[in-house]
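Before a computer can learn anything about folding, someone has to put a protein's shape into writing. The outcome of that step, for a single protein, is printed below:
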Amino acid sequence: MPANVVEILSAEELRRTITRLASQIVEQSGNLSKLVLLGIYTRGVPLAQLLGRQIEVLEQVQVPVGALDITFYRDDLDQISIRTPAKTEIPFDLSGKTVVLVDDVIFKGRTIRAALNAVTEYGRPEVIRLAVLVDRGHRELPIRPDFTGKKLPTAKEEQVKVYLQDVDGRDAVELTKELSLEL
């Protein structure tokens, strides 16, 4: 089946979205000395780094950024493709902090549920918030992002692909629609 690809966010639109998300996180976080960002592998990590850099530009404050692997906390390993687990890197104490989990796309909510379980193994944050670049709906769990770059209603069979310069060599968000061939 051939795929039809539609660009949802260009590189410039993605940059503006990151700036807006960073501003919203600053505005709602209050005390920035308690703020930490935790990116969820794979693309949540470079997104968290981009947000951290943008917050530094906006507020002249360095926000600690960590990386969270949730592979072994998932409840759907039998239904997803397995990848080699990455190394969780949280070089700071989470206790009493405002933790913003960062991911590229939220769909069913299972990744975020696993991330919440993983975070509790590293401390007891005062607050955990969620920032996502794209919210495509179809939740199976009662999880809602606090900060959303773009709401994008999708069909379940469609895919949202986030491309980031640090990982993919370009910045973009694309929607892939499978086309059926009728004979």
The first helix runs from residue 11 to 29. The CA atoms of residues 71 and 83 lie 8 Å apart.
